[in-house]
Design brief:
Blueprint (H helix, E strand, L loop, with lengths): L5 E6 L3 H11 L4 E6 L7 H11 L3 E3 L2 H5 L4 E4 L3 H12 L7 E4 L5 H13 L3 E7 L3 H4 L5 E4 L3 H11 L3 E4 L5 H29 L3 H4 L12 H32 L5 H14 L3 H4 L8 H15 L11 E2 L2
Parallel strand pairs: 1-2, 1-4, 2-3, 4-5, 5-6, 7-8
Antiparallel strand pairs: 6-7, 8-9
Helix pairs in contact: 4-5, 10-11, 10-13
The structure holds NADP nicotinamide-adenine-dinucleotide phosphate.
The site of NADP nicotinamide-adenine-dinucleotide phosphate has 22 residues, from helix 1, helix 4 and helix 6.
C-alpha cells in the first residue's frame, strides 16, 4: 500500500478515535478526515477545533468523510457499529479497507464484513486488546477477515500496532471476548475480594499476602500451573472457596464471583480427573483440557469447541 496521497477516514472522535486519528495524521502524505455527528454550537465548533489541532479535517457528512478514503477506521460505540458499517457500504469506493475497531458482537461483525464485501470493500475485524488511555496509539490490536493483512500492513506504515489472526471476520472479536472472561472476570474478583476484606477490617492486611513470584508469572505459565494443579486439587479448592462464600455472606457481600468460581471448581472436581491421572500431576495443560473435554462430551453438557485460533505477527 502506498502512503502517498492516502486518505484515511476516522469515524468517531472519542477516546480511541482521537488517539488513533492523531497518530495517523502525523504521517506525511496521509490526510485524515474525521467524521463526527452534527451537534449544536458551541460544542460543534469546539470539536472541529480539536480535530483541526491534530492536523485532520472535521466532517459531519459521512459521505464526504468516507467517499474518497482508502482506509476507513470505525471507532464508534459497539451499539452503533453495524449501522455505521451498513451506511458506509453504500458510499465507500470499491477497494476501500474498512477497519472496524468497535467492540461489537462477532456475529454482527461477520454480517458487516459481508455488506462491506458486497460493496467491493475489504473488511477487517479489529479487536483492540487494551485501552487507548493506558497505551495510547501503541495499544495492541488483532485483526481477522479479508482486510486483516492490509490493515496490519497499513498500521506498520502509520505507526499503529496490529497482529493478524487467521480466519474470517468475527474471529478476532471472538478471541477478544474469550480474553475478557479472564480480564473482566479478574476485575470482578478483585472488587469482590477487596469489598469483603474491607468489611472484615482486613483490607490493608490482605494486600501484601497476594504477592510474590506466583503472582508475577506470564499468563501462559499461570494457565499451565493452574490447570495441572486443578486436575488433582479442584475438590479441595472448591471446598475452601465454599467456606469463603459463607465469610462474604456474613458481612453482607453477595458472593457472586466466589460462588461461580466454587461452582466451576466443583464441576471440575466431579469429573474425576484425579483418578484419571492416577493422582499424578498431568504432563501439561493440554492433557487436562483434553480430559475435561472428554468428560464433558461423555456428559454432553458442554460441547467441545470446533477449532483453535492461531496468531501470526505482522
Ligand atoms: N477507548 C478504548 O481504549 C477502547 C478499547 C477497546 C475497544 N474500544 C472500542 O472502540 C470504540 C470507541 O470507543 P471509545 O472509547 O473511543 O468510545 P467513546 O469515547 O464513547 O467515543 C465514541 C465516538 O463515536 C461517536 N458516535 C457515537 N454514536 C455514533 C454514531 N451513531 N455514528 C457515528 N459516530 C458515533 C461519538 O460521538 P458523539 O459525541 O456524537 O456521541 C464519539 O465520538 C467502541 O466500540 C469501544 O468498545 C475502545
Amino acid at each position: 500500500m502506498q502512503d502517498v496521497g492516502l486518505t484515511v477516514a476516522v469515524l468517531g472522535f472519542g477516546e480511541l478515535g482521537a488517539v488513533l486519528a492523531s497518530r495517523v495524521a502525523a504521517n506525511e502524505h496521509v490526510s485524515v478526515r474525521v467524521y463526527c455527528r452534527p451537534r449544536p454550537e458551541p460544542a460543534a465548533g469546539t470539536l472541529a477545533e480539536r480535530v483541526r489541532a491534530i492536523g485532520a479535517a472535521a466532517h459531519t457528512d459521512l459521505a464526504a468523510a468516507v467517499g474518497e478514503a482508502g482506509i476507513v477506521i470505525s471507532a464508534v460505540p459497539a451499539s452503533a457499529a453495524a449501522g455505521v458499517a451498513e451506511r458506509c457500504s453504500r458510499i465507500l469506493r470499491p477497494g476501500t479497507l474498512y477497519a472496524d475497531l468497535t467492540a461489537d458482537d462477532p456475529g454482527r461483525k461477520a454480517a458487516a464484513a459481508d455488506s462491506i464485501g458486497r460493496a467491493g470493500g475489504l473488511y477487517a475485524d479489529v479487536a483492540v486488546l487494551g485501552t487507548a488511555v493506558a497505551a495510547g496509539h501503541r495499544v495492541p490490536m488483532l485483526a481477522s477477515g479479508p482486510g486483516a493483512e492490509g490493515w496490519a500492513e497499513a498500521c506498520l506504515r502509520m505507526g499503529l500496532v496490529t497482529d493478524v489472526l487467521d480466519g474470517a471476520a468475527g474471529r478476532a472479536s471472538t478471541l477478544k471476548l474469550l480474553r475478557s472472561v479472564y480480564m473482566k472476570g479478574r476485575d470482578a474478583l478483585v472488587a469482590e475480594t477487596m469489598l469483603a476484606a474491607r468489611r472484615h477490617g482486613l483490607e490493608q492486611e490482605l494486600l501484601p499476602t497476594i504477592s510474590g513470584p506466583g503472582e508475577e508469572v506470564s499468563f501462559a505459565a499461570l494457565a499451565e500451573r493452574v490447570l495441572c494443579s486443578l486436575a488433582l486439587h479442584a475438590g479441595r479448592r472448591a471446598a475452601e472457596l465454599e467456606g469463603s462464600e459463607r465469610l462474604l455472606e456474613a458481612v453482607g457481600v453477595e458472593p457472586l464471583v466466589t460462588a461461580a468460581a466454587a461452582g466451576r471448581l466443583r464441576a471440575i472436581a466431579d469429573m474425576g480427573l484425579r483418578e484419571r491421572f492416577s493422582g499424578q500431576r498431568p504432563a501439561n495443560m493440554a492433557a487436562v483440557l483434553d480430559a475435561i473435554d472428554e468428560s464433558s462430551a461423555a456428559r454432553s453438557d458442554e460441547a467441545a469447541p470446533p477449532c483453535a485460533p492461531s496468531i501470526a505477527s505482522s
